[in-house]
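Quick one: structure tokens for this chain, please?
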Amino acid sequence: MRLKSVRTKRVDVPNDPDKGYINIQNLSEEQIAQIDAKYFEISDGGVRMINYATRDGDFAKACLTGWGNLFDESGREMKFNPKNVEKASAFSIETVDDKGKDITLRFFTWVNEEREKFAEEVEAEEKLAEKN
């Protein structure tokens, strides 16, 4: 059996003049399954996901381990703590998509997208390590 360690990554908010960033950790398969189980509906017609926004929030809360240089709408710095994580659920960020186009995303949606990218990086590194 191979034990897996929790990996963390700093992700800078793209094109942010405040140099904001988040710290995220990779989630275990069990953590992912527990969150996903709340958001899939199984019926005779198959499986469908329900409530994407709340699912993104649960993943963001589970993977966020810190942040810096994040400010609320009035310019006050938001320290990383449970109260401000909940508050952040109401915010959006301006960023760029893969094609360089300016977009606005819900903060938790962006965090979850970064978590998914990080999970792919970790998986690729683990596969490479198995070969060596």
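Residues 50 and 71 are 31 Å apart (CA to CA).
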